[in-house]
Structures are given as structure tokens and as C-alpha cells.
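Assemble and predict.
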Amino acid sequence: MQHRLLDENDRVAANSRFWLGERGIVALNVMGAPGAGKTQLLERTVRELGPSVPVSVLEGDQQTDRDAQRIRAAGAPVTQLTTGSGCHLNATMVANGLRDLEPREGSLLFVENVGNLVCPALFDIGEAVRVVVMSVTEGDDKPLKYPHIFRTADVLVLNKSDLLEHVPFDVERCLTEARRVAPPLRTFELSALTGDGMQPWLDWLQSLVRAPRQSTATRTRP
Amino acid sequence: MQHRLLDENDRVAANSRFWLGERGIVALNVMGAPGAGKTQLLERTVRELGPSVPVSVLEGDQQTDRDAQRIRAAGAPVTQLTTGSGCHLNATMVANGLRDLEPREGSLLFVENVGNLVCPALFDIGEAVRVVVMSVTEGDDKPLKYPHIFRTADVLVLNKSDLLEHVPFDVERCLTEARRVAPPLRTFELSALTGDGMQPWLDWLQSLVRAPRQSTATRTRP
């Protein structure tokens, strides 16, 4: 039965990916453990990218719209998706969220998944890029202990670097083991709280939407 | 189908609970996000309880036996349970683990679940006590954002209290919201890294196995 559910999920995800691609919207699936600092990273990213790059956000949580309120206060359009007892977003939730959010053409769309280092790895939601956010307070052993989510990731953000001096965490060991699981991984080390190390992350995000694009009409009907 | 799976799980869990109860073994299901410090808490607990209280551990992880090695080095018998792509322990894994581990009569048994604030909440594994370990670096909003796991918890351990001065975290707000979700919650604030605040936790654990018990034989065949 799980196979059939995944087939249906992948069909919806493929539709969303096509729809997003046509409009030049780059969707990033932002995953990570509870408390990794995903929302804080998005808040600061929204503020610092500013008006130069249009950004919108789908916020996934089990309960509450607190994260959506934080993103809205930071200045981006946002739709909250609550999963109830569910442990991950799926493609249908995201497709419904897209209808509500109506992200702009040529924009970045962050989809903040439910805080969980396991289940989100299994579900395609139509994203172009998979980002794992990991706090240095979680310990440097996580890539090998939760390999599935790292294996499918394009980007690893090591967050809360301001706490490195207070916790036992070997950055080199963590990155080496993460790359052993996912060799082409792009990595950033930053603190979304203090802002240290944000610039390379912001530059990379801008590069995602900087490439010139054809008009949607041209690409829809070639 | 999920209902039938849960029925079967609950049947196995009930068997384990009976088996453990007969032997005066108090099983604690230790849950929490990845990096909350569950293993570190158990390492220090094993070391500090010392020979006065017999302790054994079932270690749940997606991959690797690193945590089991750490617990063994701390001095307790341990069996590693790896779930592969699974996001939680279930009653059958734990029942199989018990056959391998053979915990002593009148002992404490810690079952460290897979790091996850969502899925473990749904699965009874035959425990007597449910413990949620939460690091203060995760943010004080977690009880309301992940209410299911807090609702079923008996105990909340706020770990990494040594980092409180470096992170935005309102202990009172967190505990108030956790008690709103789970009114009878017993709470401990400690640092498993530095050892601060461990004593009330250790005293409480000792109280769990201190009560006099009848012999197993008497209780098995009344």
C-alpha cells in the first residue's frame, strides 16, 4: 500500500514541479530536526534578500501558525500547512498550498517541512532543491545516523555556528561524513541568529533565480 | 490498515509490559528530536547511578551502532536496534531486543527511541514511563508545535541547560506550555554535558526501583 501512496505522491509532485518550472519558480524543500533553526534561517533570509529577490514560503508544522506569523513579520507571503499527527509534508499538501500562496514568476519558494530528520526524506513534494538544516548543537554524528535524509540532500546548512565554542562538535568530521553519504553536497556554515556566514548562502540563493529565462508562454507551448 | 498495524503493535506491547512488570523491570521510553542529547543523558545516568541501580539499555537508531558503543563504554549492557528507513521503534523490535538483552529483575531499562518528535508518540512499546528529552537549543515553542509527543509524556527533561545563557529560550514559557498540553508532566532541567542538575533526575530514577516487590514466582502464578 505504501508503494501505491508513493506513486500517487510522485504523480502530484511531478505536476507541481512542471508548474513551478514553467514559471521559473525555484522551490527549496527545507528539512531538518525540530529546533535546527529552519524558521529562523528563513526569517533572516527573507529580510536580507530583501526586495531584490521575490520570496514566498509554505510553512509545514504539526500544529500552530506561529512560524507563518514569524515569516509574515519578516516580510514574505506565506501559507501555513498543518499536518495534525502527520510527520512530513506530502505533495498534495504542497500543491494545495501553492494554489493558496500563488508564488510570483521568477521567485524563490521555500517549503519548510515538519521538523523531522527521517520521514520527509521519503516524500517528493515537487521541489527543485533539497536543503537539510542542522544545528551544531545536534552533534556531528547525525549524517551517519540519519543517512536517508542526507543522501537525498543537495545542500547542508550547518546552523548555530555561534554556539560552536560551547558544544562538542567537529565540523570537519561532520562534513566529511555527510559527503561520504552524499558526495555532491553543497555546504554552508552560518548563524541565522547572529547573521555570521549568511552571505555565501544569500549569494547562492540569488544565483538560483539570476539566470535569464524565456517567457512562460513560450515555454508552455513551444 | 494503520489501525490493524497499531492493534498488533499494542498486543505485543501489552505482552512486553506484562513480562517487564512481572520482573520488576521499569522500562522508560526515551524520546526526543535528533541531537536532544538522549544518549549523552543515558551515558551520564548509567555512570552516576553506578552499581546501586542495575540499568540496561535498548538503543534505537536508523543506522550505526555508535550509541550502543557509547552506552557500553559507560558500563551498561546494551542492545542496538536499527530501524533502517524506519522513523520510530515499534513493540516487536523492542520485544526482540528484550530477548537479546535479558535485563535483570528489579532493574531500570532505558529504551532510546529514534530521534524524532513526531512518530514515536504513536507507538506503545510496552514502557512504564514516557520521557521526552528536549534541548534548550531547540527553542521554547516545541510543546505547542509537536503536541502529540508531549501529550503522551510523563516526564520532560530540559537538557543542555549550560547553553541557556547563549540561546533565546524562555524556560517558564516552555514549561507552562508543556503543562498545558500534558498537565501531570514531571520536569527536570539539567545538563548531561556538565552534570548540573542531574541529582533530582537520578533520585527520581532510584525511587522507581526502590519500592519493595514480591517475588516473580508469586506474581506469575497467583
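The longest strand of chain B covers residues 55-61.
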